[in-house]
Amino acid sequence: MSPPPSSSPATALPSGPPAKVRLALDWTPNTNHLGFYVAQAKGWYRDANIDFEILPYGTTAPESILAAHQAECGISFQDALTFAAAAGAPIVSTMAILQHTAQDIAVLASSAIRRPKQLDGKTYAGFGYPNEVPTLQAVIRHDGGKGDFDTVTLDTAAYEALYQKRADFVITFAAWEGIEAQQRGIDLRTFRFTEYGFPDFYQVVLACDREWLAREPQVAKAFVGATVRGFQLAAQDPDQAAQILIAQNPGVFDSNPALPKASAEYLAQQRLLVDGNGKVGTQTLDEWTGYSSFLYDQGLLVDANGKALAAPPDYASLFTDDFLPAAP
Prior knowledge:
Elements: E1 19-24, H1 34-42, H2 44-47, E2 50-55, H3 62-67, E3 73-76, H4 78-86, E4 91-98, E5 103-108, E6 123-126, H5 132-142, E7 150-153, H6 158-163, E8 170-173, H7 174-183, E9 188-192, E10 204-209, H8 210-215, H9 217-236, H10 238-248, H11 258-269, H12 285-297
Parallel strand pairs: 1-2, 1-3, 6-7
Antiparallel strand pairs: 3-10, 4-10, 5-8, 5-9
Helix pairs in contact: 1-9, 1-10, 7-11, 9-10, 10-11
């Protein structure tokens, strides 16, 4: 079941001592996190009487940290949150950070591969996630191929394997690795999932602990509201947001300070931070059902004992917009 909405108006702020809110990162700081650093730098969490802390990424997934109640919220993804919720993690998405998928299949532009069906018989350099191969097979088959290819699991070394021609294709994140490749003078040819019959999905979401949401709905609404404000600025002024991200993380981007700026601009230009009405954070049942039901149909959703779900989950329970700011 979805956590209860706050009965307090969106403008109400917690009173008394600042409320602690910890955010578990999914990776090192990057443009998926822009809104949090903007809201922190602008003092919007402080104004909401929130003591905000960013927990750096370690070896534990944010979903596991939330399930252990060691953070109130964390960076997640539609697939990762669906997997975790199916296995019993008491977490829910409270806002969509990226409204659409920004993943592509990438090959070298110099290769003879010009469409997904030509990936049959080729070598995929991947990351070991359970949904990678089924996703690629679905795209290839929609284009008329068989979906038969070899897989090598290389994690982040997958990109270099492609660039050095030790693999034929990868799944790339257009707003980061795609830009980075371009900056390095590496020409890629990409195939967008959604252009080949694959459902769109929320690339990045803000997941929160259900128990915390039920216990502190007013704090949660203030936190999500300040975060939405941060991402609104990122959507409207990506250069400023990128400058804040860099300043808030000294040393992290020294090797390529142009990358976060170009990435932030890409997110804004491609309208990945806003829905069709220009709003930040909103989610729909259709989008949650489309991709998450694909994961179920592929037999990828398992319970806490590792047994495949016998029935689809309640897709409406995976998200809530109850903590987003009220429409003006």
